[in-house]
């Protein structure tokens, strides 16, 4: 290993991982939503909790909103509130999956009235972005069918393209649309945006302000996700990540918990493809790094702290790959040598150097321990009674 931690330490400055507001609410499975003492009752309390994650790690300056879960009367006031507690408002996520009208689809629906309702909801999200200063509109659709023959797959694609165009045309110059794909759930026969290729086809047709969102939990088991990362970066269309980890389905567990090696491989391709670091340096459009997780049985704030630390740890290891040596090994067909170079970086324990990196920047060496010692969890448990149910579980 010729690359040292000191030589990559500066590249860790400015790393930003956006937190999802919904990670701070109670969540669960379709079997049970357990409530956690101290769970936020309002978006303001969620922002206050998210600010703890940023305060202790320096890694999470933005919080993503989900509309209507985080609906408020005055988004400019919410923006000011966020700034007051030390965070910014980030990606605005639309929601067309919890309304009876969308039983058979939203942007793909056969009924023009329902389609327009779904389009109008996205217009409302863009209004929110204008007030919050958010740059990204994230669209994930529950649209799909359960039985062969239930819907006209081709017709649904055509209607989707038309609806997306109407939404895209409303974006401001500095705003982006990111289209998330998912191969199953809640529809189980087909979904209308099942894979990166379908998302890519739509966002490419829309134009230069539209990108693909890659949620790490939305692939079939065994999918080589880092290949998708490499390809989308090559095509200039990787807009954002929803990070989480999974053992079986869309588990939404802590990123890096199930398969740290996969997270390392993803981060290596991000670095290799110019998706990491300031946009001007990389020459590509910036990639937004977001978490999309739920904390069903563990405390939510430490769950989010652990998550951003996991991303930072695998980013550091990915930056440690000796790219010059790797290039040489690859060029000479040194299969095992090349593999060893990558594995050397993966096996490098960066926890000590990262603790020192934090201390040198006025952050606690161990953010998990600092949170546990802060008394914040006991304070919110005492102060907040009747936390919000997740909108998923409700
Ligand atoms: C859908 O599974 C998804 O990953 C989308 O990103 C939604 O916005 C999010 O979950 C909501 O929890
Ligand atoms: Mn997601
Ligand atoms: Mn998901």
From TrEMBL:
What UniProt keywords are attached to this protein's entry? Isomerase, Manganese, Metal-binding
Name used for this protein in its record: L-rhamnose isomerase/sugar isomerase
Q: Which domain of life is it from?
A: Bacteria
Asked whether the keyword Amino-acid biosynthesis is assigned, the reply is no
What molecular function terms (GO) are annotated for this protein?
Answer: L-rhamnose isomerase activity; metal ion binding
Q: Which SUPFAM superfamilies match?
A: Xylose isomerase-like (SSF51658)
Q: Which GO terms describe its biological process?
A: L-lyxose metabolic process; rhamnose catabolic process
Q: Does the keyword Manganese apply?
A: yes
Query: What InterPro entries does the entry give?
Result: L-rhamnose_isomerase, Rhamnose_iso-rel, Xyl_isomerase-like_sf
């Amino acid at each position: 290993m010729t690359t040292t931690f000191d030589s990559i330490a500066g590249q860790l400055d400015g790393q930003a991982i956006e937190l999802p507001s919904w990670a701070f609410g109670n969540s669960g499975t379709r079997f049970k939503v357990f409530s956690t003492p101290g769970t936020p009752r309002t978006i303001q309390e969620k922002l206050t909790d998210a600010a703890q994650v940023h305060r202790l790690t320096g890694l999470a300056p933005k919080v993503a909103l989900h509309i209507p879960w985080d609906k408020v009367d005055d988004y400019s006031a919410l923006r000011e509130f966020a700034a007051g507690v030390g965070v910014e408002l980030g990606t605005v996520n639309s929601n067309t999956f919890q309304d009876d009208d969308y039983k058979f689809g939203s942007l793909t629906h056969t009924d023009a009235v329902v389609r327009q309702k779904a389009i109008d909801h996205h217009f409302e999200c863009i209004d929110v972005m204008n007030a919050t200063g958010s740059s990204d509109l994230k669209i994930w659709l529950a649209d799909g069918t359960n039985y062969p023959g239930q819907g006209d797959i081709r017709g649904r694609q055509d209607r989707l393209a038309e609806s997306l165009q109407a939404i895209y045309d409303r974006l401001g110059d500095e705003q982006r649309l990111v289209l998330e794909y998912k191969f199953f759930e809640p529809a189980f026969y087909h979904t209308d945006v099942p894979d990166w290729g379908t998302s890519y086809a739509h966002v490419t047709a829309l134009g230069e302000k539209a990108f693909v969102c890659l949620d790490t939990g939305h692939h079939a088991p065994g999918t080589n996700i880092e290949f998708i990362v490499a390809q989308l970066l090559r095509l200039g269309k990787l807009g954002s990540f929803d990070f989480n980890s999974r053992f079986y389905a869309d588990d939404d567990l802590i990123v890096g918990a199930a398969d740290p090696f996969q997270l390392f491989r993803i981060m290596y391709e991000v670095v290799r493809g110019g998706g990491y670091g300031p946009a001007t340096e990389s020459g590509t459009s910036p990639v937004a790094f977001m978490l999309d997780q739920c904390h069903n049985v563990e405390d939510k704030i430490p769950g989010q702290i652990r998550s951003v630390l996991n991303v930072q740890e695998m980013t550091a290891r990915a930056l440690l790959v000796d790219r010059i040596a790797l290039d040489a090994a690859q060029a000479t067909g040194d299969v095992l040598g090349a593999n060893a170079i990558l594995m050397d970086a993966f096996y490098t324990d960066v926890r000590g150097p990262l603790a020192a990196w934090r201390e040198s920047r006025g952050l606690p060496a161990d953010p998990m321990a600092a949170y546990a010692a802060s008394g914040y969890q006991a304070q919110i448990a005492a102060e907040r009674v009747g936390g919000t149910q997740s909108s998923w579980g409700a």
